[in-house]
Amino acid sequence: MITIEHAGCIYCVGCSSVCPVNAIEAVGTRMKHYPERCIDCGLCAKVCPANVITLHKGVKDRSQLKGAGK
Amino acid sequence: MKYDHDVIVIGGGPSGSTFARYAAGAGMDVLVIDKRKEIGVPVRCGEGLGAREVLAQGLELPKRCISTEIYGARVVAPNGKEIVWKDKQTTGWVLERKMFDKWLCELAVDKGAKVHTYTRATELVREDGKITGVKLSHGGREPYEVRAPLVVSAEGMESFMARAAGFRTVHALYDVDTCYQYEMKPYDHQNLIELYFGNKLAPRGYVWIFPKSDRKANVGIGIGGNHVNGKKGANGLDGADPKALLESFIASHPQLKDSSTLIDFGGVISVGAPMDEFVKDSFMVIGTAAKQVDPIHGGGMAIAMETAALAAKVAIDAHKKKDFSRNSLLPYESEWKGTLGKKMAKRLLLRKVIEKLDDDDLNHIFGAITQQDLNDTMDGKFAGPVAKVVAGRPQLLKVLGALVPGARTL
């Protein structure tokens, strides 16, 4: 799965335009991630112009992350 | 079947608003929804627009939409050699984009279109497999159904409903540019668009300075989405980092290094081919959502407005015939491919050729060509400029030959 540092996000939706599985979507004025759909390809992180997306390969659940992201 | 509207347009940017203006003007009942709280905000754009496109639609830009007028351009090679041209007449504007988008949207309202902001399309409504409307949610509240015989996706880069309708909207990293831009002040300019090229400066892209009013400028960079120049996120994944490159450009720029930043913008732009198809039964995709973006400069507004006018013309005909089948909507797609599509294909070819050039090649090219050659190249007339360049650097024929049919056999 990925985590997004929302504070630095400029809400450009670039991540969702390259996501092959619809796992990121703009909801209101915030990018929402759906970990259950995520295939860990990392394309969103590679393209993010604001550099706020971190890929956690193999992690399926937020609870497995220690304080990373929000 | 009972419908609430004749057409639902998803997205109130330049393409959606222009479509709505024409469709409502012809008497159609149009609903435009936009997920943002305010039309035109946030801006994610260089804000440049050519004069031709606006005049072609008989529009007169109000003063509030214009930040400054453009009188030419200055293009700079990696070695600093420049080509400058200035015109007596305005060739275009740098807009106040949020005012511009709102104005275009208001024109649609003036023609009778209904617009709802902060309203998101959550899913398509289908009956017997046929699209008959969309589910909408206002401000995240419980979705409700709105029905129309035609749905138009003008969703921009995040084309979720077009995806849901079965279009291939996802972008490959190779076919996007990732961009970062600051609005900066002070910057004393001469109302010229400035473009800086170089593979170190901006791999597969360029740095731009678009002048704005009151000693301001949009200073931005776009680089290939598949480019690797930075570590991303906490785990150090390799990726493209346009911001780092933009900051090093600014740090070495005599004027900008001491200037302030007033706005941070960023974005990812489609610079690949348009989608293969734009229509299905009861569904049209227009503008950036259909990847109809100029592959050279990443500009989408001009194409979007022209496309929207064409799509609306076809939709109005379909409305008169009460037939929104794919066949009935298809003239939009075929006419687009025969006109705008041909221009765009040439620009894509040019982009793919330019990205093969190294800095020495670029320096040579800038030394060999004139302003007129540059204009010809942008108009798709490649033969003259290519001949000049190849005369002094024959090895470039291998790359540039792709632009001139038959050149490889010379």
Q: What is the structure about, briefly put?
A:
Chain A contains 2 helices and 4 strands, in the order E-H-E-E-H-E. Chain A has helices at residues 14-18, 43-47; strands spanning 2-4, 24-27, 30-33, 53-55. The two termini of chain A are 13 Å apart.
Largest beta-sheet details of chain B: 7 strands, mixed
Residue runs with pLDDT of under 50 for 5 or more positions of chain A: none
Structural class of chain B: alpha+beta
- Which structural class is indicated by helix and strand composition of chain A? alpha+beta
Task: Give the overall shape of chain A, derived from the CA principal axes.
Answer: globular
Query: Averaging pLDDT over every residue of chain B, what do you get?
Result: 93
> How do the SSEs of chain A run, as a string of H and E?
EHEEHE
In oligomeric terms, what are we looking at?
Answer: heterodimer
Which spans of chain B of ≥5 residues are poorly predicted at pLDDT below 50? none
Principal-axes geometry of chain B comes out as: globular
Give the % helix of chain B. 25-40%
Strand content of chain A: 15-25%
Strand % of chain B is 25-35%
- N- to C-terminal separation of chain B? 64 Å
Question: Biggest interface: chains and residue counts?
Answer: A-B, 34 and 44 residues
- Helix content range of chain A: 10-25%
Q: Termini separation of chain A (Å)?
A: 13 Å
Major sheet strand order of chain A: 1-4
Number of helices of chain B: 12
Overall pLDDT level of chain A: 86
Give a verbal description of the structure.
By secondary structure, chain A is of the alpha+beta class. Chain A has helices spanning about 15-20, 45; strands at about 1-5, 25, 30-35, 55. The model of chain A has no long low-confidence stretch (mean pLDDT about 85). With about 400 residues, chain B is an alpha+beta fold. Helices cover about 30% and strands about 25% of the residues of chain B. Chain B has helices spanning about 15-25, 50-55, 95-110, 160-165, 240-250, 300-320, 325-340, 340-355, 360-370, 370-380, 385-390, 395-400; strands at about 5-10, 30-35, 50, 65-70, 70-75, 80-85, 90-95, 115, 120-125, 130-140, 145, 150-155, 175-185, 195, 205-210, 215-225, 230, 235-240, 260-270, 280, 285. In chain B, the strands form 5 sheets. In chain B, strands 6-5-14-15-16-13-19 form a 7-stranded mixed beta sheet, with helices on one face. In chain B, β1, α1 and β2 (about 30-35) form a beta-alpha-beta unit. In chain B, α1 (about 15-25) packs parallel to α3, α1 (about 15-25) runs parallel beside α6 and α6 (about 300-320) runs antiparallel to α7. Chains A and B meet through α1, β2, α2 and β4 of A and β13, β18 and β19 of B.
